[in-house]
Amino acid sequence: MRIPFITNWLIGRQMRDLALTALVHSNSHLHEDMNALSGQVKELVATSRRRELVVVAAQHFADVFDDTGLAYDEGDRLNDRQMQALTEVLRAAGHHKGADAWQSYAVPDETDADPFNNEDQEQAEPVSV
Known about the structure:
5 helices; single chain
């Protein structure tokens, strides 16, 4: 035998319980998603800040090395890779004339050796005075 009032009340309570359980479950997923998104936003902000610092430093570097006299004095001491890197930074910063000046004073490498390589010194005989 069914008692309509109690049966309807039990069915309604069961439905409310199911609805509340689903709400709590979705709320926990939402909270997890919000935490994940918050972490991603923090990472993006940190990455953006690092990139901004690198851009500012590269611009300052380019401003300092946009100097024809410096290019004349030091251009022949850079190897091809160093010269390419320097001219790319200068051009990216808008210093095309400076990059051209550095390039004009460059001396092409016979090999892509490091100018500060000490291998030759190890093979040379010491000079006595």
